[in-house]
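Suppose you are handed a protein chain with no further information: no name, no annotation, nothing but its sequence. What can you learn? This example shows the usual starting point.
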Amino acid sequence: MSRNIRVSEPSAEMQIKIIQAKDAIASQKPRIVRCPYCRHNSIIVFEDTRGHVQTKCKACGRETVFNVLEMRRLRRLQLYYSSLNG
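A reasonable first move is to predict its three-dimensional structure. Written in structure tokens, the prediction is:
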């Protein structure tokens, strides 16, 4: 069974935007957000990512909406409490 999928190059304007986006994140540290159900690596976000992101896990198939800023705060709290406990 073959699918007729057309793949074309992005326009010149879109290619410039893609290059600019890659340059903008070149110095930023990526952070992996895991699926809360199966702990599989779900998405990669960068330091300047804000707001809500919806993704579907490739491993378990569940869709999840992440609040990226809230996930960052949770990580900081986890590090804080783990440093207190030991």
